[in-house]
Amino acid sequence: MKTEAKIERAGTSGSGVNNVAESELSEDQALAIVSAADVTRENLVSLSRLKIASKSRKVALALATHPRIPRHVSIPLVRRMFTFDLLQIALTPAVAPDVKRAAESEITIRLKSLTVGERIALARRASTQVLAGLLQDPDARVLSAALDNSRLIERTVIASLAQATAAQTLFKCVGQHPRWSQKRAVQRALLGSEKTPPKIARQLEKHVSGELLDETPPQRQRPPDS
Description:
Elements: H1 3-10, H2 27-35, H3 41-48, H4 51-55, H5 57-64, H6 71-79, H7 83-91, H8 97-110, H9 116-125, H10 128-134, H11 140-148, H12 154-162, H13 168-176, H14 184-191, H15 198-207, H16 210-215
């Protein structure tokens, strides 16, 4: 059966959609429509207006990530999703870049409202863009999980250290991290900041080359070890 016929049978066809907005459609029926090879843009828009699109996480996710659905429909769907559904969108290669960016932006906006446990779980799996927000977290457990994430890149670590709002906890976690503390550009950022704990700074100074020390800008006075 053609997709259009399936939607008509479900009471969700084309111009009559406003009259059938309260029609009940099962999750399985809706998912079958979304996954049909001949599904059209109009089919997807009609389906997005039905109750099932807001009641079912699976249907909303399938609609938001479908390549044929228009952005004025998919982006609002994304903004209503659960945080870890948004993460799934951000990590799915086939999803359109602008839909991914919308998902990542929404996650970043929500970070302060998440529990520590949720932020730790997110940090372990997050995309590079979301990790940039997580590196501004005040909790060392969240920072450690983010620094261990294989998607994290050096440029993001350095940019996070350069933020005026970066907490000293970030400098401590980066300076003690077995991977990031060995990166030359990261070492330069740590040695050039008064936020780096003195003990970590002295350890770095013992192991880095004289050339790197010469390249590092003079730092402001650090407080002594407590």
